[in-house]
Structure formats: structure tokens, C-alpha cells
Amino acid sequence: MDLRWIKDPSFQFAAVGAALFALHGLFQTVSPGEGQEIVITQNRIQHLSNVFERGWQRPPGPDELQGLIDEYIREEVLYREAVKMGLDENDTVIRRRLRMKMEFLAKDLVDAIEPTDQVLEAYYSSNIEKYTVPSHYSFEQVFLDSGKRTEVAEDARLVLTKLTAGTDPQTLSDSNLLEFSYDNVSSERIDRLFGSDFSQQFLELETGQWAGPLTSAYGEHLVRISSYEPRHQADFTEIKADVLRDWQQAEQKNILQAQYETLRANYRIRVAAPTAGDAEGAQ
Known about the structure:
Oligomer: single chain
Radius of gyration: 34 Å
Helix content: 40-55%
């Protein structure tokens, strides 16, 4: 018997379609037309038109708009049928997308709220550490490589004498990847560049004078600070926009948690106790 027709793509597609149709029948509990209405409102049509215009920088023509409507109807029909068939169940991607949409509702709610200055000032005060500006320095540094110098402490004393006498500092520095001078750099950035707590040694230095040596993650340094701005609290009026953004994020988190706790109360949660094998696998 010639069975080559079984391998024909047209037959295979037809067979798959028939199988899906038969499977759909198992889930179909509503007769055609009963509870099956799809309404395309004027707001929906306007939304489709707006999306098209944002992408193409022009409104859709009549045929294009009809195509958008037809495509939306196709999507809605297939979406509803997929839900009836349970195709959305246990799908990680769909679950996460729906969770994100639920969380976006909370964000939209917060964005619609216009907090008063008193509310923002209260948030600013209760989170003052977040709005504290670290100290800033402008300085020059001469590097002494302790890995190559056998008497680095004595060398530092001699170099410091030359610096005080007016010798060009860049001619006295050992080769390194660090910059010779830094302008208005925060103490946090200094510590990232030179090593933890390096900027703490600056607190004992006088502005405008070479001093040291100061120890970093690289070696020893002679430093001259040219300007210094101490750590201080940022003025509320200057950072109000930042405070508003932070307040919105905090409120969104609070609303999401309250929403979750309210919804969770509607469910009876039962969690199976982990088996010994589960515990060993988690180690």
C-alpha cells in the first residue's frame, strides 16, 4: 500500500487541526453564540489606532484600521479558546506576565496619587541617610610603590621634602594607573579607586599642604588636598523630584504587599513537608 500521502504536509496540517478541534470539543461547554460575544468598543479602536500611529508616525488608513481590528478579533478568539482549553495553566511565562500586570495596577494607582509636600518632607526626614551627600575632595597624589622600594618610609620623607620645596610632583611619582589629580571626587569614589577607607585618612590632612604617606591598596601616597566639601544633608527643595520617585517606589511596594495579603487571605494554603531527599538536594 502506498502511504506516501501520509507524509504530505497538507495532510499533516489537516490532521493536527482535526485533533485540536476534537480536543477543543472536550472543553467546550457553551454553545456557539451563548456567552461568546466579542465587543470592539470605540475606545479599543482608538487604542489600536494610537498604537499604530506611534509606530508609523501617521494614523492608519481605512484598510489598515480594519486590518488592525480583524487581527485583534483573531487574537481575542484564539486567546479565549486557549483559556478554555487550559493552555494557560502551569505556563511559567504566562504566570509571570500576569503577575507583572497585577503589579502594574499598583504602580498605576501610586502614579495617580499627588502627595503633598508635607508627605514628601516626612518621607525625606525618615530616610535622611539616603539623602546625605558624602564629602567631596579635589586633590593631587604622588604614588610610591612599596613593592619596589625597600625603604618606602624614608623615601616618602625625602619626596615630601622635595614637594615642599616646589619640585614638580609628577616627576616624583612611581609609575601607576591612577590619575595624578582628582577634581571634586566623593569619598565613596575615592575608596572605590584607592581601597576601602582610604578617604578616612584625608580627615587629618590640612588643605593646600603636601602630607603623608597615606596607605592604599596599591602602596603609599603623598597627598595635597586643594578643596574639601564636608558631608552634608541634601536640601529638600533641590532633590524633591528624587524624593517623590523614592516615595512612589516605597508606596508601590506597600500597596503590593497589602494587596497580596488581602488576596492571600482568600486561599487556604497547604504546603507539603519536604522529604529527606529534597533537603539533601537543597544542600
